[in-house]
Amino acid sequence: MQNVHTSTSARSRWRTRELLTAVVIALAFAVLLVPFTFAYAAILSLGIFARSAMTGLFFLPSAFAAYVLRKAGAVLLVSALSGLAATPFTGYGPLVLLIGLLTGAIGELSTWLVTRYRKFDWPHFLAMGALSGTVEFVLVLFSLRISEVNFAAVALATGLSTAAFVVMSIVGRSLAEAVKRTGVLANTALGQETIQDV
Amino acid sequence: MMTALAPPGSRLQRVNPLVKLLAIVPPVTLAMLSNDPYLPSALALLAVLTLWIGGVSLRQLVRAVLPAAALILFFLVSYPLVIRRELVLDTPVIFSLGGLEVRWGALQAGAKAGLRIFALVTLTLVFSLTTDGAAFVRALVQQARLPYRVGFAFIAAFRFLPLIQQEVSVIRAAHRARGVDDGPGPLGLFRRVRRMAVPLLASAIRQAERAALAMDGRAFGAFPQRTWLHRAHFTYADPLFLAAFWLSVAAILWGLGQLGLLAPLVIVQRL
Fold this sequence. Notes:
- The complex is a heterodimer.
- Chain A is mostly helical.
- Helix content of chain A is about 80%, strand content about 0%.
- The longest helix of chain A is centred in the C-terminal third of the chain and has 30 residues, at about 150-180.
- In chain B, helix 2 packs parallel to helix 10 (about 235-260) and helix 7 (about 135-140) packs antiparallel against helix 8.
- Chain B is flat.
- The chains are: A mainly alpha, B mainly alpha.
């Protein structure tokens, strides 16, 4: 029993290597997405549908981290750090951090519910993205006062948000596979899985 | 941390970051639940005054608040397009364009939503414009019991940022040397981001691995506690700030209530 307990805690414990990998993943995405973060307000002014499509972009770091690290807390940590790192470069202050935290918390919950940090095949991964997109938009609707918006607009915007998150899940996973081919992910959960397969 | 704009040693910089975070929770909640334009406007004004009194210059304030003010415009433009018609049918038409009628009620709802978001942003500025990132992480670890390994991940993020930015320049120079042209406009930007993603992530992860080896070599994380160069403290200024801020929020509620300008808070929404 003692052995089982030890191995479980060892699996859930973050190693320094994993922590720093999460940090640099977050920073790399923060730097890559800064031009899009700048454009966020302009895109917001195009309306609720443009906003739905755009917010999916901020799920990209979460999707990448979930697929590479496969650890409880990875999605939330990467998303929060990504928002934190982008904060000084944009004029929106902590709004970016709040979006990062919100997207991360939803992504973390979806990853836990759908994949249990173990099943990362395409159907599970896409389901995780779809669930995140739907939940994120439903939460945003509360700040917009859901009772004031007409049903067709809500349905269309929710569908757009879900689709955007699914697309970003595909992009995140494909990007992780591309980075894996360079060999730098050998010490991550994704890299270890490949070694076990071989 | 680059987000801290208030000069070091200014009044708000001296307040403990956890106290500032605690202070903004009630007004942020009130702003989220508000259903009139007056409460969020008053809370936003309180936040701006707090920042000004706390040592943030007017120029810095304008720079920080303007993008959030643009959000009000977004809601004014978008709400008439998405609002349920039956909610605003009894209000006068301001103008019509083709089949689209913009009614006074829709603009009011848009203004309320925009002011709500504006208040949320300005209230969170009280924390973010006056808080040093490292001080916040220290307070989280030393006083809020956040595991120090996670705390150091946040501190490491600020140390890694210049390295990542430098790496971006190197990759861009390498692409230019190879004659890569991504073209202008949003499509060009998208191509550039796509081309940079893999080399940037690969190089950043390599750097992280090297840093992790160095940290492990110095026994980082080997002990449940660690020593600190700087200690986070609570001082007499913390309860004073908390009391003054919360009393101001209470005064706003009381004042608006007396003037009959306070609408009931929206806690449960009906579809």
